[in-house]
Specification:
By secondary structure, the chain is an all-alpha fold. The chain has a single domain, classed as Growth Hormone, Chain: A (Up-down Bundle), CATH 1.20.1250.20. Helix content is 78%, strand content 0%. The chain is built from 14 helices and no strands. The longest helix is centred in the first third of the chain and has 31 residues.
Protein backbone atom coordinates (compact mmCIF):
# COMPACT_ATOMS: atom_id res chain seq x y z
CA UNK A 1 0.00 0.00 0.00
CA UNK A 2 1.27 3.50 -0.81
CA UNK A 3 1.88 5.26 2.49
CA UNK A 4 0.46 8.56 1.30
CA UNK A 5 -2.91 6.76 0.93
CA UNK A 6 -2.74 5.40 4.48
CA UNK A 7 -5.00 7.69 6.52
CA UNK A 8 -3.19 7.03 9.80
CA UNK A 9 0.21 7.77 8.29
CA UNK A 10 -1.16 10.89 6.63
CA UNK A 11 -2.65 12.18 9.89
CA UNK A 12 0.62 11.67 11.76
CA UNK A 13 2.51 13.27 8.88
CA UNK A 14 0.26 16.33 9.01
CA UNK A 15 0.87 16.53 12.75
CA UNK A 16 4.59 16.58 12.02
CA UNK A 17 4.04 19.27 9.42
CA UNK A 18 2.27 21.59 11.88
CA UNK A 19 4.71 20.97 14.73
CA UNK A 20 7.64 21.93 12.53
CA UNK A 21 5.89 24.87 10.88
CA UNK A 22 5.77 26.31 14.39
CA UNK A 23 9.34 25.20 15.12
CA UNK A 24 10.36 26.90 11.85
CA UNK A 25 8.95 30.21 13.08
CA UNK A 26 11.46 30.35 15.93
CA UNK A 27 14.62 31.68 14.28
CA UNK A 28 12.69 34.26 12.22
CA UNK A 29 10.70 35.39 15.24
CA UNK A 30 13.82 35.71 17.40
CA UNK A 31 15.56 37.71 14.68
CA UNK A 32 12.49 39.97 14.49
CA UNK A 33 12.52 40.36 18.29
CA UNK A 34 16.30 40.90 18.50
CA UNK A 35 16.02 44.66 17.88
CA UNK A 36 13.10 45.54 20.21
CA UNK A 37 14.29 43.18 22.95
CA UNK A 38 18.03 43.91 22.54
CA UNK A 39 19.10 40.30 21.84
CA UNK A 40 22.77 39.79 20.92
CA UNK A 41 23.98 36.92 18.72
CA UNK A 42 25.11 35.10 21.86
CA UNK A 43 21.68 35.63 23.44
CA UNK A 44 19.99 34.27 20.33
CA UNK A 45 22.12 31.18 20.78
CA UNK A 46 21.14 30.90 24.46
CA UNK A 47 17.41 31.15 23.71
CA UNK A 48 17.61 28.69 20.82
CA UNK A 49 19.62 26.32 23.01
CA UNK A 50 17.03 26.49 25.81
CA UNK A 51 14.19 25.93 23.33
CA UNK A 52 15.86 22.92 21.75
CA UNK A 53 17.27 21.41 24.95
CA UNK A 54 13.89 21.34 26.66
CA UNK A 55 12.30 19.70 23.62
CA UNK A 56 15.21 17.26 23.37
CA UNK A 57 15.70 16.16 26.95
CA UNK A 58 12.05 15.21 27.45
CA UNK A 59 11.85 13.14 24.25
CA UNK A 60 13.04 9.88 25.86
CA UNK A 61 10.43 10.33 28.61
CA UNK A 62 7.61 10.75 26.12
CA UNK A 63 9.06 7.92 24.02
CA UNK A 64 8.86 5.62 27.05
CA UNK A 65 5.26 6.70 27.66
CA UNK A 66 4.34 6.05 24.03
CA UNK A 67 5.91 2.56 24.22
CA UNK A 68 4.07 1.71 27.45
CA UNK A 69 0.74 3.54 27.19
CA UNK A 70 0.28 4.06 23.47
CA UNK A 71 1.05 6.93 21.11
CA UNK A 72 -2.41 8.52 20.82
CA UNK A 73 -2.34 11.24 23.46
CA UNK A 74 1.43 11.68 23.38
CA UNK A 75 1.35 12.54 19.66
CA UNK A 76 -1.88 14.54 19.54
CA UNK A 77 -1.19 16.27 22.86
CA UNK A 78 2.16 17.47 21.53
CA UNK A 79 0.51 19.22 18.58
CA UNK A 80 -2.16 20.84 20.77
CA UNK A 81 0.37 21.96 23.40
CA UNK A 82 2.42 23.77 20.76
CA UNK A 83 -0.68 25.46 19.36
CA UNK A 84 -1.61 26.75 22.83
CA UNK A 85 1.76 28.08 23.94
CA UNK A 86 2.72 29.59 20.60
CA UNK A 87 -0.57 31.47 20.65
CA UNK A 88 0.10 32.69 24.19
CA UNK A 89 3.62 33.83 23.21
CA UNK A 90 2.26 35.91 20.35
CA UNK A 91 -0.12 37.89 22.59
CA UNK A 92 2.27 38.36 25.54
CA UNK A 93 4.42 41.53 25.61
CA UNK A 94 8.10 41.80 26.52
CA UNK A 95 10.53 39.10 27.53
CA UNK A 96 7.76 36.93 29.02
CA UNK A 97 6.89 35.92 25.46
CA UNK A 98 10.29 34.22 25.15
CA UNK A 99 9.53 31.97 28.15
CA UNK A 100 6.19 30.95 26.63
CA UNK A 101 7.92 30.25 23.33
CA UNK A 102 10.37 27.96 25.13
CA UNK A 103 7.51 26.16 26.91
CA UNK A 104 5.88 25.53 23.53
CA UNK A 105 8.88 23.39 22.60
CA UNK A 106 7.70 20.68 25.02
CA UNK A 107 4.96 19.83 22.52
CA UNK A 108 7.58 19.13 19.90
CA UNK A 109 9.40 16.89 22.38
CA UNK A 110 6.22 14.91 22.97
CA UNK A 111 5.23 14.48 19.33
CA UNK A 112 8.49 13.42 17.69
CA UNK A 113 9.25 10.04 19.37
CA UNK A 114 5.66 8.79 19.07
CA UNK A 115 5.34 9.98 15.48
CA UNK A 116 8.68 8.48 14.45
CA UNK A 117 7.76 5.11 15.97
CA UNK A 118 4.44 5.09 14.12
CA UNK A 119 6.10 5.95 10.81
CA UNK A 120 8.65 3.13 11.07
CA UNK A 121 5.96 0.61 12.04
CA UNK A 122 3.78 1.61 9.09
CA UNK A 123 6.78 1.18 6.81
CA UNK A 124 7.30 -2.35 8.08
CA UNK A 125 3.67 -3.40 7.76
CA UNK A 126 2.33 -1.25 4.90
CA UNK A 127 5.36 -0.61 2.66
CA UNK A 128 7.01 -4.03 2.28
CA UNK A 129 9.42 -3.49 5.17
CA UNK A 130 10.92 -0.26 3.79
CA UNK A 131 11.26 1.35 7.21
CA UNK A 132 13.93 3.87 6.20
CA UNK A 133 11.80 5.09 3.30
CA UNK A 134 8.74 5.37 5.55
CA UNK A 135 10.70 7.19 8.25
CA UNK A 136 12.18 9.52 5.65
CA UNK A 137 8.69 10.21 4.27
CA UNK A 138 7.50 11.05 7.78
CA UNK A 139 10.41 13.44 8.26
CA UNK A 140 9.65 15.07 4.92
CA UNK A 141 6.38 16.33 6.42
CA UNK A 142 8.39 17.91 9.24
CA UNK A 143 11.06 19.31 6.98
CA UNK A 144 8.43 20.72 4.66
CA UNK A 145 7.04 22.36 7.80
CA UNK A 146 10.49 23.74 8.54
CA UNK A 147 10.55 25.00 4.94
CA UNK A 148 7.14 26.68 5.23
CA UNK A 149 7.69 27.96 8.78
CA UNK A 150 10.43 30.55 8.13
CA UNK A 151 8.90 31.67 4.85
CA UNK A 152 5.42 32.14 6.35
CA UNK A 153 6.85 33.77 9.47
CA UNK A 154 8.78 36.32 7.42
CA UNK A 155 5.76 37.22 5.30
CA UNK A 156 3.33 37.39 8.23
CA UNK A 157 5.69 39.40 10.43
CA UNK A 158 6.37 41.89 7.66
CA UNK A 159 2.67 42.38 6.97
CA UNK A 160 0.90 41.94 10.32
CA UNK A 161 3.59 41.93 13.02
CA UNK A 162 3.78 39.27 15.73
CA UNK A 163 0.01 38.75 15.87
CA UNK A 164 0.12 37.49 12.30
CA UNK A 165 1.70 34.25 13.55
CA UNK A 166 -1.58 33.42 15.31
CA UNK A 167 -2.80 32.39 11.87
CA UNK A 168 -0.47 29.41 11.65
CA UNK A 169 -0.86 28.53 15.34
CA UNK A 170 -4.64 28.29 14.86
CA UNK A 171 -4.19 25.72 12.07
CA UNK A 172 -2.54 23.29 14.49
CA UNK A 173 -5.73 22.78 16.54
CA UNK A 174 -7.74 20.77 13.97
CA UNK A 175 -4.64 18.78 13.03
CA UNK A 176 -4.05 17.74 16.65
CA UNK A 177 -7.67 16.64 16.96
CA UNK A 178 -7.41 14.64 13.72
CA UNK A 179 -4.31 12.82 15.03
CA UNK A 180 -6.20 11.85 18.19
CA UNK A 181 -9.12 10.50 16.14
CA UNK A 182 -6.96 8.42 13.81
CA UNK A 183 -4.98 6.83 16.65
CA UNK A 184 -8.04 5.56 18.52
CA UNK A 185 -7.48 1.95 19.51
CA UNK A 186 -3.77 2.01 18.58
CA UNK A 187 -2.03 -0.44 20.90
CA UNK A 188 1.33 0.45 22.48
CA UNK A 189 4.23 -1.73 21.30
CA UNK A 190 4.44 -3.30 24.77
CA UNK A 191 1.00 -4.86 24.24
CA UNK A 192 1.54 -6.20 20.72
CA UNK A 193 1.50 -9.99 20.52
CA UNK A 194 4.66 -11.83 19.48
CA UNK A 195 2.93 -12.89 16.26
CA UNK A 196 2.08 -9.33 15.28
CA UNK A 197 3.82 -8.15 12.12
CA UNK A 198 4.44 -4.76 13.72
CA UNK A 199 6.34 -6.42 16.56
CA UNK A 200 8.79 -8.21 14.28
CA UNK A 201 12.08 -6.37 13.84
CA UNK A 202 12.83 -5.49 10.22
CA UNK A 203 16.49 -6.39 10.75
CA UNK A 204 18.65 -7.95 13.48
CA UNK A 205 19.36 -5.77 16.48
CA UNK A 206 22.55 -3.76 16.16
CA UNK A 207 25.22 -3.99 18.83
CA UNK A 208 27.98 -1.42 19.18
CA UNK A 209 31.04 -1.37 21.37
CA UNK A 210 32.07 1.80 23.18
CA UNK A 211 34.14 3.05 20.26
CA UNK A 212 31.31 2.49 17.82
CA UNK A 213 28.81 4.26 20.07
CA UNK A 214 31.10 7.25 20.48
CA UNK A 215 31.62 7.48 16.71
CA UNK A 216 27.87 7.22 16.13
CA UNK A 217 27.17 9.92 18.72
CA UNK A 218 29.78 12.33 17.34
CA UNK A 219 28.53 11.77 13.78
CA UNK A 220 24.94 12.53 14.85
CA UNK A 221 26.05 15.61 16.82
CA UNK A 222 28.10 17.13 13.98
CA UNK A 223 25.35 16.58 11.41
CA UNK A 224 22.80 18.13 13.76
CA UNK A 225 25.07 21.09 14.50
CA UNK A 226 25.30 21.88 10.77
CA UNK A 227 21.51 22.12 10.50
CA UNK A 228 21.20 24.07 13.74
CA UNK A 229 23.83 26.66 12.81
CA UNK A 230 22.18 27.29 9.45
CA UNK A 231 18.66 27.50 10.89
CA UNK A 232 19.51 29.70 13.86
CA UNK A 233 22.15 32.05 12.46
CA UNK A 234 21.52 32.31 8.74
CA UNK A 235 18.51 34.66 9.27
CA UNK A 236 20.57 36.93 11.54
CA UNK A 237 23.52 36.84 9.13
CA UNK A 238 21.30 37.90 6.23
CA UNK A 239 19.55 40.49 8.39
CA UNK A 240 22.96 42.00 9.21
CA UNK A 241 23.56 42.20 5.44
CA UNK A 242 20.46 44.40 5.16
CA UNK A 243 17.89 41.85 3.98
CA UNK A 244 14.20 42.04 4.93
CA UNK A 245 12.27 39.43 7.01
CA UNK A 246 10.60 38.05 3.89
CA UNK A 247 14.00 37.58 2.20
CA UNK A 248 15.85 35.91 5.07
CA UNK A 249 12.72 33.90 5.81
CA UNK A 250 12.69 32.62 2.22
CA UNK A 251 16.39 31.71 2.17
CA UNK A 252 16.09 29.87 5.50
CA UNK A 253 13.04 28.08 4.11
CA UNK A 254 15.03 27.00 1.06
CA UNK A 255 17.60 25.34 3.32
CA UNK A 256 14.89 23.27 5.00
CA UNK A 257 13.16 22.61 1.69
CA UNK A 258 16.43 21.19 0.41
CA UNK A 259 16.74 19.10 3.57
CA UNK A 260 13.24 17.70 2.99
CA UNK A 261 14.08 16.63 -0.55
CA UNK A 262 17.45 15.24 0.50
CA UNK A 263 15.89 13.32 3.37
CA UNK A 264 13.37 11.41 1.26
CA UNK A 265 15.87 10.76 -1.55
CA UNK A 266 18.54 9.71 0.95
CA UNK A 267 16.14 7.37 2.75
CA UNK A 268 15.09 5.69 -0.48
CA UNK A 269 18.69 5.34 -1.70
CA UNK A 270 19.75 3.96 1.71
CA UNK A 271 17.18 1.15 1.48
CA UNK A 272 18.52 0.31 -1.99
CA UNK A 273 22.28 0.87 -1.79
CA UNK A 274 23.09 0.79 1.91
CA UNK A 275 22.87 3.27 4.76
CA UNK A 276 26.59 3.65 5.42
CA UNK A 277 27.45 4.32 1.78
CA UNK A 278 24.75 6.97 1.32
CA UNK A 279 25.58 8.69 4.64
CA UNK A 280 29.27 8.95 3.73
CA UNK A 281 28.57 10.27 0.23
CA UNK A 282 25.97 12.88 1.11
CA UNK A 283 27.85 14.27 4.11
CA UNK A 284 30.99 14.61 1.98
CA UNK A 285 29.04 16.52 -0.66
CA UNK A 286 27.35 18.74 1.97
CA UNK A 287 30.66 20.28 3.02
CA UNK A 288 31.13 22.04 -0.34
CA UNK A 289 28.06 24.36 -0.41
CA UNK A 290 28.35 24.91 3.36
CA UNK A 291 31.91 26.20 2.89
CA UNK A 292 31.09 28.32 -0.17
CA UNK A 293 27.91 29.91 1.22
CA UNK A 294 29.53 32.50 3.56
CA UNK A 295 32.04 33.53 0.89
CA UNK A 296 29.25 34.91 -1.31
CA UNK A 297 27.84 37.61 0.96
CA UNK A 298 24.43 38.56 -0.37
CA UNK A 299 24.12 37.06 -3.85
CA UNK A 300 21.43 35.39 -5.98
CA UNK A 301 23.73 32.35 -5.90
CA UNK A 302 22.45 31.74 -2.37
CA UNK A 303 19.22 30.49 -3.91
CA UNK A 304 21.30 27.65 -5.38
CA UNK A 305 23.90 26.90 -2.71
CA UNK A 306 21.62 27.10 0.35
CA UNK A 307 19.08 24.44 -0.74
CA UNK A 308 21.96 22.31 -2.05
CA UNK A 309 23.57 22.46 1.40
CA UNK A 310 20.23 21.54 2.98
CA UNK A 311 19.64 18.55 0.70
CA UNK A 312 23.02 16.92 1.31
CA UNK A 313 22.99 17.70 5.04
CA UNK A 314 19.47 16.31 5.50
CA UNK A 315 19.97 13.11 3.50
CA UNK A 316 21.41 11.11 6.42
CA UNK A 317 18.85 12.15 9.07
CA UNK A 318 16.50 9.17 8.70
CA UNK A 319 19.42 6.79 8.29
CA UNK A 320 20.70 7.63 11.77
CA UNK A 321 17.23 7.40 13.31
CA UNK A 322 16.52 3.94 11.85
CA UNK A 323 19.94 2.61 12.91
CA UNK A 324 19.32 3.92 16.44
CA UNK A 325 15.91 2.18 16.53
CA UNK A 326 17.65 -1.11 15.74
CA UNK A 327 19.78 -0.70 18.87
CA UNK A 328 16.59 -0.92 21.00
CA UNK A 329 14.33 -3.61 19.47
CA UNK A 330 10.88 -3.49 21.05
CA UNK A 331 11.40 0.06 22.34
CA UNK A 332 11.14 2.02 19.13
CA UNK A 333 9.58 5.17 20.57
CA UNK A 334 12.17 5.28 23.37
CA UNK A 335 14.96 4.78 20.81
CA UNK A 336 13.46 7.50 18.61
CA UNK A 337 13.28 9.85 21.58
CA UNK A 338 16.86 9.11 22.57
CA UNK A 339 18.40 9.68 19.13
CA UNK A 340 16.24 12.68 18.24
CA UNK A 341 16.72 14.18 21.68
CA UNK A 342 20.48 13.68 21.43
CA UNK A 343 20.70 15.17 17.95
CA UNK A 344 18.57 18.19 18.80
CA UNK A 345 20.30 18.85 22.13
CA UNK A 346 23.82 18.48 20.70
CA UNK A 347 22.90 20.86 17.90
CA UNK A 348 21.48 23.28 20.45
CA UNK A 349 24.59 23.20 22.63
CA UNK A 350 26.69 23.71 19.53
CA UNK A 351 24.73 26.85 18.61
CA UNK A 352 25.44 28.20 22.07
CA UNK A 353 29.16 28.07 21.27
CA UNK A 354 28.57 29.23 17.70
CA UNK A 355 26.70 32.33 18.88
CA UNK A 356 29.62 33.25 21.12
CA UNK A 357 32.10 32.72 18.27
CA UNK A 358 29.92 34.75 15.90
CA UNK A 359 30.09 37.72 18.28
CA UNK A 360 33.89 37.36 18.45
CA UNK A 361 34.84 36.53 14.85
CA UNK A 362 31.72 36.93 12.70
CA UNK A 363 29.34 34.54 11.00
CA UNK A 364 31.47 33.55 7.95
CA UNK A 365 34.06 31.75 10.08
CA UNK A 366 31.32 29.97 12.04
CA UNK A 367 29.72 28.67 8.85
CA UNK A 368 33.06 27.48 7.47
CA UNK A 369 33.88 25.68 10.72
CA UNK A 370 30.49 24.03 10.32
CA UNK A 371 31.59 22.73 6.91
CA UNK A 372 34.75 21.26 8.47
CA UNK A 373 32.60 19.49 11.06
CA UNK A 374 30.54 17.90 8.28
CA UNK A 375 33.74 16.53 6.69
CA UNK A 376 34.57 14.89 10.02
CA UNK A 377 31.02 13.47 10.15
CA UNK A 378 31.49 11.94 6.69
CA UNK A 379 34.64 10.16 7.89
CA UNK A 380 32.80 8.88 10.98
CA UNK A 381 30.01 7.53 8.78
CA UNK A 382 32.44 4.82 7.66
CA UNK A 383 31.97 3.21 11.13
CA UNK A 384 28.20 2.76 10.75
CA UNK A 385 26.91 -0.81 10.99
CA UNK A 386 23.90 -2.17 9.15
CA UNK A 387 24.12 -5.77 10.34
CA UNK A 388 24.64 -7.43 13.68
CA UNK A 389 28.07 -7.16 15.22
CA UNK A 390 30.23 -5.25 17.67
CA UNK A 391 32.81 -2.60 16.80
Amino acid sequence: MTLILDVLFLAVGMGHLMVDVLNGHRSILLTYWSGPLGLSNAMLGVISTAYTLIASLIQPIFGYLADRLGPRWVASGGVLWMALFYSLAMVTPGHAAIYLLILASMGSGAFHPAGTMLAALRGRTHAAGRETTATASFFVFGQFGLFLGPMLAGLLLERFGVLGLLITASLAWPVGIAVARQLRGMLPPSRLTPSSDADKPAAPALKYGLGGLLSFALLAALRSLAESNMNVFMPKYLSDLGQSPSTYGLVTALFMGGAAVGNVVGGSLADRYGKRRIAMLTLSLASVPLFVFPMLGWSPWLYFFVPLAGSFTGASHSILVVLAQRMFPGRMALASGLILGFMFSSGALGTLLSGYLADLWGFPLVFQLTAVGVVVAAVLASTLRESQGVN
